[in-house]
Amino acid sequence: MKKYILILALILLTSSVHAITLSNPVSVALGGAYIAKARGFESLHWNPANLGMVENFMTFNLFQVSSDVRNTTLTLGYYNDLMGKLLNKQDKEEFLNKIPESGLSLNANVGTHLPVSMSIGKVAVTFNTMVRSSAEVSKQYFDLILHGNELGVTYDMQGNRGRAVAFLEAKVGYGDRIPMEKISSSFEDLPPIYGGVSFGFIHGMGYAQILEFESQFATNDTAMTVYNNLLIRTAGYDTEKSEFYAASVFPGAGFGYRMNVGLTSTITENVTASLAIKNLFGKIDWTESCEEHEIQVNAFDLTIDSWSDTLTVDTTYAIDGFTQTIPIELHIGGSYKWNSIGFYADYVQGFKRSLFTSARGKFSVGAEYYPITWLPLRAGFGFGGGERAHFSLGTGLDFSGFNFDWAVSYYTSPIYTTATGIKLSFGAELAF
Prior knowledge:
The chain has helices at residues 2-17, 25-29, 43-46, 76-82, 89-98, 139-147, 180-183, and strands at 58-71, 104-113, 118-120, 123-137, 154-157, 161-177, 193-219, 224-235, 237-238, 243-244, 254-266, 271-286, 291-302, 311-318, 322-325, 329-338, 341-350, 362-372, 375-384, 387-399, 402-411, 421-431. By secondary structure, the protein is mostly beta strands. The protein has one domain: Porin, CATH 2.40.160. It has a 20-stranded antiparallel β-sheet that branches. A two-stranded antiparallel ribbon has the order 9-10. The longest helix is centred in the N-terminal third of the chain and has 16 residues, at 2-17. The termini are far apart.
């Protein structure tokens, strides 16, 4: 039983401590409106065509970390008020009323750029780690925890879902100006158009998914009725040895790849338009330590004396490898520069819900202002994409050859105490 608790913890706890392109401090500060602004090695994740617009011959990452945690309902201020408090009946009812009937959704993401990420001229290479997770927990669980198993009440806990993935990814890409005038003389008067492509190679570290999780529980004056069905699929974690396969073995528990292609154009000196298609052919083939874990409990008129008659299935069995697809995503955006202020806007449209994409469109806007040549002030706003609206702020130190940036974003509300989630990002790089 302990191994199942561990697996569930890996899914649910990672979620409770936390989408889609690898974030950085500037993109977070601009609310996610970054496709037209990305330069250097960051272009690989946003639009590889931007590599062709060389502003610095070399960019080199020193460190970069981004993480976020969010839920659908509970605010950070409310969470802080509850900590250490002995809940009375009114507190419990207030808590339950905040959770929708569909349950509580939790999401967590952590991403880091390794120091070897860099660009030289129009070529770039990056190495990054990613952990993504999401979970949906039935409201009935919280009712049971807060009030206990009340007599005559049947707790029917349906719709529980969870998924988590961890991987390393190496990306390489190239961007350059497309010689449109050589294609046709009628294109000579067009503004410069840049094209680019990047390839990502994925080293899968671990995967976990709740395939089925249903539970019913009822108590009367003399006995209990219990039904539980839990089925979890994992890869990369050996439950018998209690260790991760990818911790010491290359190429890891899975291998995958994906490709990004993009176009960008400086329409005028102050206006840039950008388009990228991401995750082409994207997938991860999980092949090592692939298992399914099943727990079934059935008991009718259960008492202490009949506990041994409970029908229980508790088993783990190996399965064939399986494939996790990374759905395609369309990303368009633009920028406008007015004096020392830059304005940015992005739209992202995925076509399937996954840990990497949302089927709902997302719109983001942001602005950047330099009151001093080395001090950027940034703000942004975004909504859609299966997320609550988010409000962002950020700044940094932008010296010649060295940048340090940080950003914070709040979900649902721009005020910390009424926000339902938070994203933090900070990092530094060299640029020559």
